[in-house]
Design brief:
It is a single chain. With about 550 residues, the chain is mainly β. A hairpin with a 6-residue loop joins strand 33 and strand 34. It is elongated, with a radius of gyration of 32 Å.
Length: about 550
């Protein structure tokens, strides 16, 4: 045992001596760490258009010099909603010069990651960032305007980043194929799960762009403005021959719900009746008129006015011209699964503190939305000879919907509301803007209802008004008053103007809007454009 202990002690002493003798013989080197800069952070995206190049030149700082080691460079696509493991290797170059196509060609936000690997040490350094991919013509104002000889064109004020660019004749630009027959009537854009056709089986952008003329009603594909026969409104119809009355299905007017309701819900006015289309959660094609009272399926449709106030998933308010009363179309979830509750409407019998829902003296002049949830009607009271402003809204739950009165006002006796062609109620301020073809007025909505003629401030000399409205439903600038005018003596197809105005809080005074409206110290342009024909309609198209 003593010999074993001694041998062990001797071995330990020899090992210790070897370690002491070996001290300083190892070649220790500092790690060559890498700092990546010159690339935006994940919360400040790069903006790039589909089909164009994303170019990034990162700055790499090496703690002990770049020359000492070898490196591998990689650019990875990480995901769309949240970053995760690489779904695609995009490039192995130190600097990125990548054409945005393929897996990056769908508009939206993408996470990308730049990786630099030190091949000597095996240590990898990463930098995650985001890229916003957008079509240059994917969103913005679409404008329908007349051309010489009775035709029409569609222009676009396309929003890319903070820039609005006027693209002329986008149907020709993209070789759309949309028939340009008939007199232009209207234009409508809204989220739509059935777009561009319920029978289309390819990749779809769930968004509708409708072009209405007196000869046809057609939808064009939102991402490239193309057209196919299946995009015609007749493909959304189950109307019996008796309802069509021997006429082709051509909408006189279409109105869609707010941008938050993506079930393709819309209303169409045709042949003196309102019709309803819905895609989700229950599909209803245009079929039977809505202007038939519930509980009386044998009744003939009542004479309904060509105006409607729609409120999201609750329904719509209409007006029975024969009986001088407001009616209600309900689309709450308790009704949406039963067609007998959809293809009909109801007389409104709730308490009427401000005005009567049914008044034999009422003649409807106009009705439309003010906000997503509220609307207004302008009526003439034939017993007094005065015109009145009626404000109303819809409120509801999954099982019930109620039409609610908000206010009643009387226009001054010397103001001829019957001659007014356009009514536009500010979404948050108490000002109603009215226009004939020749004059524009501002009315303060209070007890006195004071009227101010503001024509000279907003209408160019010799021009007439063709459009006036607040595009509050889809436009990010819904508080701006849209005003289109044209010069009857100007060259057809080039005689129209489009301007956007902002209203002052305390006075309702209009001033030409700037874009971007909320830019801080950035470049701003007047929201004013020329070079259109007579503008018939416009709407805001989202991505």
């Amino acid at each position: 045992m003593k010999h074993i202990t001694a041998a062990t002690a001797l071995a330990m002493l020899l090992l210790l001596g070897a370690c002491i003798d070996d001290k300083g013989n190892y070649a220790y080197r500092d790690v060559n760490s890498i700092t990546i800069s010159g690339i935006k952070r994940a919360d400040t995206s790069y903006l790039v258009a589909v089909g164009e190049y994303l170019s990034i030149t990162p700055t790499l700082t090496f703690s002990v010099g770049e020359e000492r080691d070898a490196y591998r460079y990689e650019w990875h696509q990480m995901g769309k909603v949240v970053p995760h493991q690489s779904v695609r290797l995009l490039s192995t170059e130190r600097n990125l010069n990548l054409k945005v196509e393929g897996s990056l060609s769908e508009v939206g936000d993408y996470y990308l990651m730049y990786c630099v690997t030190n091949l000597t040490t095996g240590v990898r350094y990463d930098h995650v960032f985001t890229v916003k991919v957008q079509n240059r013509i994917s969103k913005g104002y679409i404008v329908l305007h007349e051309q010489s000889g009775g035709g029409f064109e569609v222009d676009m004020l396309a929003l890319f980043g903070d820039t609005l660019t006027h693209y002329k004749n986008i149907l020709n630009m993209f070789a759309s194929g949309l028939p340009k027959d008939g007199k232009p009537l209207d234009l409508l854009c809204y989220p739509d799960h059935s777009a561009p056709s319920p029978y289309y089986v390819g990749t779809r952008q769930e968004y509708s762009v409708w072009v209405l003329t007196d000869k046809s009603t057609n939808r064009i594909k939102a991402e490239d403005f193309s057209y196919a026969p299946d995009y015609n409104i007749s493909k959304l119809s189950l109307m019996p021959a008796a309802v069509l009355g021997g006429k082709p299905l051509v909408a006189e007017k279409m109105v869609a719900t707010s941008a938050t309701v993506a079930g393709a819900r819309c209303y169409m006015y045709f042949n003196g009746c309102w019709f309803f289309f819905n895609w989700s959660p229950m599909p209803y094609f245009f079929n039977l008129p809505l202007n038939v009272l519930s509980g009386d399926p044998q009744a003939q449709p009542y004479a309904v006015a060509p105006y409607v106030i729609i409120v999201g998933s609750y329904g719509a308010i209409m007006f029975d011209e024969a009986h001088h009363r407001f009616t209600l179309h309900k689309t709450v979830s308790s009704d949406i699964y039963t067609s007998s509750r959809i293809y009909c409407s109801h007389v409104i019998t709730d308490a009427a503190p401000a005005f009567k829902w049914q008044n034999p003296d009422y003649k409807l002049l106009y009705m439309g939305n003010r906000t997503y949830q509220s609307g207004f009607a302008v009526v003439k009271n034939t017993s007094t000879g005065r015109c009145e402003l009626l404000q109303m809204s819809l409120a509801g739950s999954t099982s019930a919907v109620i039409a609610t009165q908000q206010a009643w006002s009387e226009f001054p006796a010397d103001f001829d509301a019957e001659s007014v062609k356009f009514f536009a109620y500010h979404t948050s301020l108490p000002y109603l803007y009215c226009a004939t073809e020749d004059r524009v007025y501002r009315i303060l909505i209070n007890a006195s209802m004071s009227v101010h003629d503001i024509t000279e401030k907003v209408v160019p000399a010799g021009h007439k008004v063709s459009v006036m409205e607040f595009l509050f439903v889809r436009s990010p600038w819904g508080h701006l008053l849209t005003l289109a005018t044209y010069d009857p003596s100007g060259a057809e197809g080039q005689n129209g103007t489009l301007r956007f105005y902002t209203a002052e809080d305390g006075t309702g005074e209009l001033s030409l809007a700037k874009h971007p409206a909320a830019a801080a110290g950035g470049y701003q342009i007047d929201m004013s454009w020329t070079g259109f024909g007579k503008i018939i309609a416009l709407d805001y198209k989202q991505e």
